[in-house]
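Schema walkthrough. Field components (list of strings):
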Amino acid sequence: MHTKTIVELGAGLRAGEFSSEELTRRFLDRIKHHDRRLNSFVTVTEAAALEQARAADRRLASGDAGPLTGIPFAHKDIFCTEGVKTSCGSRMLDNFTAPYDATVTARLKEAGAVMLGKTNMDEFAMGSSNETSYYGPVRNPWNTDAVPGGSSGGSAAAVAARLAPAATGTDTGGSIRQPAALCGITGIKPTYGRVSRYGMIAFASSLDQGGVMAGTAQDCAMLLEAMAGFDERDSTSVDRPVDDYPAALDQPLKGLKIGLPREYFGEGLELAVGEAVEAAIEEFRKLGAEVRDISLPNTHLAVPTYYVVAPAECSSNLSRFDGVRFGYRCENPADLTDLYVRSRGEGFGPEVKRRIMVGTYALSAGYYDAYYLKAQQARRLIRDDFQRALGEVDVIMGPTSPTVAFRLGEKTDDPVTMYLSDIYTIAVNLAGLPGMSVPAGFVEGLPVGLQIIGNYFSEARLLNVAHQYQQVTDWHRRVPEDFV
Amino acid sequence: MALDPSEVRKIAHLARLGIDEQDIPAYARNLSDILAFVEQLNAADTSDIAPLAHPLDATQRLRSDAVTEVDQRDHFQSIAPQVEAGLYLVPKVIE
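Field assembly_structure (string):
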């Protein structure tokens, strides 16, 4: 049961082969049995999950079921869930029970999906390895000495180990695509504004976007369909109809124009990862796609631009954590300043502090033009590169990450080296474009991800391209042997 | 731009962020590395390039000036560290 896709599970539920309660119990048992080796969940909501499953079974019996009714999923612990701890991977919110549901949470609830629990993540989504979590690192199911990627590392590991058929994620600089690549699953980060950010704890508001991590592109399409759409509670939500993602999956790829940015295949890319990506591109040629070289000449500016823009926005967003209204408060504050300084000093971990300080510095008097304004100008150059390229080709492809999963502790002493692991994903967020990662092979037993980038609101096309690739390959069907 | 320990203390103060004295040298080193890294941007020619704040050049949506939220004070204060009579309590501000 646990190796089936959502589409297969939905068919089984509707045919009465098993109930949602049985299905939910199976995944809860797997979490109990396997998660002590992965640490992919912060909270398992067993009782609530079984209650939701029984409600779903009643809906199924009465014929009032949608495609996700009764399907279990894991929810990244960045989305507010009413009455359930929402930690964002931080000590600051270890005691925070959300008083309301995020829009994504509410929409999945309405669809009848069953939440198994909340997944571990880098603290406030700041990290590329899931090692900055207050709850300890998550391990990669393909090799438990390796990281799962981050920041949605718990979601990626849980789906890869089949502890959940799918999970939510968020992506500010690669936090869906990079862990999806490193754990061998499929992930989509939609266009900025496609999925509501209401109730999704903010890191960098002009970059943050919620999305899906699942076994297949088809499953991603089903979940995204339920999550996406206009929300008046998010001021940056885009008021535009959601395409029928599942209906677009079967379109043939003949004549699809694929661009390969030469900057994504140069220095820094692990040779064997590059070879796996080239082999994947070959499959697309066989499917009738035309492949051509393109250039994104300002690629080298993406990571430096991001590490001004994201910290600047984070220093502003995280000023709300002050020990007054919710979250962590220090013991016996001497005065109001001491309350702020110690609550924040004790509540935040080192990476969050670094980013708040970089942002505070970049926005401080006398430095604003040199850092923030300059970065926003570079951001336009990066976006314009993509717009030029996407005038010539339908989709852009390349590696999701320059390497396969690295070892725990390998990059923790050197923040800049860690930041460079997102070198191929970050520009997509700066430009606000949708992007996916699809399993495309293995290097020494660790998964390789193929990244697919499209123009604004081309999610249906991206999912279609990924789905067609998954019809002729089986990388996405592999299960790590310790978690079969 | 290399930051010295006194600058780190100043930034931490601006951000109201408590940092242990023993950790200051490591933060000074890390933050200096990050700033040196982002200063690669200086090599880019951005003269005449307008800053980009929103990838789709969208502007803030306006809504009519009507009350849309109900009062949930008690609900929201149920998770506050310290409240009294509907007010959030903090240490004495005025002597």
